[in-house]
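Lecture 7, part B: from sequences to assemblies.

Below are the input chains for today's worked example.
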Amino acid sequence: MSHAERARRPARAPRVSLTRDQVVDAAVRLLERDGYAGLSMRRVAQDLGVGTMSLYWHVADREELLDLVFDRVVGAQVLDEVPDDWRTALAQIARAALRLYDGNPWLLDVVPRPTMGVVVLRHIEQSIAATASMGLSFDERMTAVSVLDDYVLGHVLSRHIWPSTGVPPALSEAAQQRLAAGDFPLYAAIAADPSAHESYEASQGFERGLAVILDGIEVAVTSGKMKSGPAIRAGHRRRRHS
Amino acid sequence: MSHAERARRPARAPRVSLTRDQVVDAAVRLLERDGYAGLSMRRVAQDLGVGTMSLYWHVADREELLDLVFDRVVGAQVLDEVPDDWRTALAQIARAALRLYDGNPWLLDVVPRPTMGVVVLRHIEQSIAATASMGLSFDERMTAVSVLDDYVLGHVLSRHIWPSTGVPPALSEAAQQRLAAGDFPLYAAIAADPSAHESYEASQGFERGLAVILDGIEVAVTSGKMKSGPAIRAGHRRRRHS
DNA sequence: CCCGCATCTCGTACGGCGTACGACTAGTAC
DNA sequence: GTACTAGTCGTACGCCGTACGAGATGCGGG
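Predicted structure of the full complex, as structure tokens:
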């Protein structure tokens, strides 16, 4: 029945009516509207007014679609250039990443992608380049970049887990009892004083942690941790003695 | 919510073929064997030789089961006591967390829990306590603890994403082309030299980053960042001048 | 002209998932 | 006995990703 009715319809031109980019766009739209849980192949297709299985011509599977979404969104927010000073450069890169995740909370559910896209490479390249003026070995520069990346990712994730609306996060029933019983006096001090919690939030927490890490990197830069191997770029020798 | 232990007026427990703990045990067993993707209520029930819906008497829903699993596993690996020296104390705590995630990779898929259980509270309490000898304000101690937590979480997650088997992670097709085209010379240097990558792996990366962060905290401790407010515990005044 | 052929769309179906609902059973209290 | 309750579980609903293959459309060559 449905077949006869469908066959009766006049010529629709399915020729190139759907493109890969449209699929990715629709997925991003859906993610922004309904979050990660609201994304499904059926919903994407419905949003496009298209059969579900039509998507699979343009995209191998859901996994690949998520890869494309990730690259699209991350690529939309990369720094064009960074200053020469490594400290402000790294801080800018870190803040850009923070902004990215803050603006797209669902990104954290998408991020566990084993395949690195172009934008990730660009980010790494940019970060390494930003450390050129440090006068450290390649290995040490990699360490600096990695520790910063890890910190930002972890910070964003922990924020994502505990929404940090000034109010301490929800506690399990057992945890509430133990807290009321006075088993955690130090934490109780925070929970009792909302201003303490609030002061840490409001993105102050991120900046403080960022400063701590940059200080730690600076220790490596100024102290004698540098190996005087050939890995150092000429003309960038430190002036401070070891 | 389960009606398990409430209204124990007629104090008897006659029907005890299945218990809450058994359900959690089975879930953990399944997670260890098949990973996060292999966990489902049906499988847990099957593993217990029990009807699927029987689980729901002891557990509200899948979400609560995951909460319990998380608390169980994390609780199994907490430090009993930590040394007085804040630096080694924090390092030990961080390494314990790393070990925890390394030993239970699926934990990272379970960790996004909005509800903090007892063990998380214990961890926070322990961390704050470990910073007692720093002579910093409460806020600064919280910053130190948070930045370390965030780093560990991010490090573990990024490792989870890119399995780090000495070999650089998989690249998307487009990324490979761009790399071959010489668009990322700095990264290419790493990819070309497997030893560089390898040297960073093998858990050396974690220790290096950890040292950087501890150095950064130490900067805050030794420099004049301390506010001489009443938040400082008596008898723990710093000796160094501000 | 028609005919293959590549390109693209999509209906149907399968096996999985979490869980709402309510029937059923067994043990206790009266 | 009857009444009640704690605990078990079969069935069903509405989701999900996607394998399969049939159908539609345009194009180049006979």
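Note for the exam: The mean pLDDT of chain B is 82. Keep this in mind when comparing with the next example.
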